Amino acid sequence: MNDTFFLKGNICHTPVKDRLDVHEGAYLLCEDGRCGGIFDAPPPALRAVPVLDYGDCLILPGMVDLHIHASQFAYRGTGMDEQLLEWLQKYTFPEESRYADPAYAERAYRIFADAMDKSATTRAAVFGTIHRDATLCLMDFLEGTGIISYVGKVNMDRDAPPALTEKDADSSAFDTFGFVNAAHKRGYRRTMPILTPRFIPTCSDELLSALSEVRRAYDLPVQSHLSENPEEVMLIKLLMPEAAFYGDGYDRFGLFGGDARTIMAHCVYSSAEEIARIRERGVWIAHCPASNMNLASGIAPIRKYVDGGLRVGLGSDVAGGQTESMFRAMTDAIQVSKLYWRYHDHSARPLSFSESFYLATKGGGSFFGQVGSFEEGFEFDAVVLDDSLAPHPQPLTLQDRVERAVYLGLDRGGIREKFIRGVKRGLDAGTS
Amino acid sequence: MNDTFFLKGNICHTPVKDRLDVHEGAYLLCEDGRCGGIFDAPPPALRAVPVLDYGDCLILPGMVDLHIHASQFAYRGTGMDEQLLEWLQKYTFPEESRYADPAYAERAYRIFADAMDKSATTRAAVFGTIHRDATLCLMDFLEGTGIISYVGKVNMDRDAPPALTEKDADSSAFDTFGFVNAAHKRGYRRTMPILTPRFIPTCSDELLSALSEVRRAYDLPVQSHLSENPEEVMLIKLLMPEAAFYGDGYDRFGLFGGDARTIMAHCVYSSAEEIARIRERGVWIAHCPASNMNLASGIAPIRKYVDGGLRVGLGSDVAGGQTESMFRAMTDAIQVSKLYWRYHDHSARPLSFSESFYLATKGGGSFFGQVGSFEEGFEFDAVVLDDSLAPHPQPLTLQDRVERAVYLGLDRGGIREKFIRGVKRGLDAGTS
Question: Is pTM, for the whole model, over 0.90?
């Protein structure tokens, strides 16, 4: 499979954010896992290339989820009555404590991986728990789905229940070292470790410093949380008074972009200084609108980020967000941007559909390289979507069909096939 | 069917809004279309009553959709880039014009009715178009689903495209008279006409006055739109300067509660005077959170309405809202109430899950009588939901299961059976 073939169908993507580019009944070339171009008909030189004909289906880039907690998937859609800090104590930490038990981890992560496999997501940045073995088990399952992911063993050495507090900074860092080594030894082809200090409230300065060393040794990327909730932002000022702002608290330890490729989730309350630093360091922002509603956090100033040329993708943030669906994340992002415009900043034009689509594909995809679009040379991640399960009495343009499929959540039930780096879902990449 | 039986399963409802009441593995008695009580085991006197055993399924009251436009269903999930008045001109009116063609109406309404049939909705207040025959066709289809509904032929005699503007007030009113007569003649058992002036911008004073006469003659209920969008509210001041506020514009013509049982959709920008009048006249508010996000209208002050003891239900408002799912409406209502608290009024506590569930069932149900709860004497509308399609590794309480089913939208794919006034979906009520 992972050689040369065409997908035939209605090819839709967003090379630029202002327009959904559509090609009706066109041919999308895959060559060794990369996009080789979009053609109205196979060029003469490529006549022998096999064609996988998906008829009237929509062919979209795979979705990129820049922020999801695998260990929270089990209780998604419950416990939506608290804000962040209380929610962590009441629902999240008790559930994450269960992953000390390998049998539980296996049972829970199997369910998570199965859901991800069925989703439109082809790339993800994933949080596990503090537990090394459980997180390796998660990586085993994700590798099996074909999804390309970064997975982090979480670090926490303070301000959590005893069962979730690692002994001290050194032991947390050393365990992370062991986790990274073990992950490398397992020889995954699609599943990579990422440094995952939970957030500053649960990470001492000593821990951040030690992690910084681990990071440099293995050139690891980083994922964490930033400026999600007003109380959280206040707490940082108490916990780390020497930091100029929340993000500076990571940056002081070399865990905020620059050499350290970094995703920061949320950025709802980032100050002008923090935003300037995010831009300067090239940090990716994972915008998580559902979570920011469910935990009453607020609405991130996404227009400012998008127009300011920052690196932005979308995150489902299960279980702050209730679903792994990136189609849902797209429409949530649009909807909250309309309320932000209405209630907070009348100069902040709401996100358009194509902008949101761009964020969910090419925006987040850039964290993984040339990913999230069908431009030539991009890695070949594609989702084949059958939208005929939602009948309609009138003609629809392809643009309408894509918008409708996303708003109606046809990623549930409508995904007919998924290709990741040119490999069909379910097939092993071993033949490459 | 429509006689005496038990449903066995996990029975969950909200007799009061502050608590989801659950009964594990219990027996819910149906007697002649009404609830006869919830029992741990069949009482001795009722041992001969047949039991429909739904095992571990959830048994919930049927959902009540207080505001949905059947004629907009075809383009739901598309065209989400405009505010109300522009959206009507650009998307809604062109689509509604198609319903002049009976063949189109039949095709489109068949799709709508099929979707409603598959949904968790058992009661609905539905907008058609200005077209009498098309709206009767819609009623035929809805009658076939078993759903109990009010359906309105829309009235508009100004400020719309020519194809959607009725000739004048008298002809619009006379056509409505004909519509009501025809509906009565068809002998529906579950489908009733409702007076449906679209909103004041498209209804002249003469039309409202003439409709008031039709209303009184047939004792019709009324549905319309109120204070949805700031520009719309401004427009009313220009169009009807003598009205003290938007709702007064309806009230001056006897179309605002009191004798006229009335649903007003939205009420996002209702003034204190308007709210007082809504309470005084006992008008039902249809809160439509998805629509209010999609059209960037804003967020209705739902806490004020709920705590103030107003009559409130939820509406999907397709196609301002993108989906007919009332599960989705429930979670949207909670989510926007959190943003309202965060950005607009820190004294307005967000909706709890049980409050939102109450609005979607008993709150809206009260428009239909004793509907939306399993209390004794209430009409027997029940949905049997199999939530096992979303596996989980840990124990869940019944409360968690209901919240999860709603947040995950398990109304799609999870509905195993639906009973309306004691009649099983798909069975005709003829035996009653």
Answer: yes
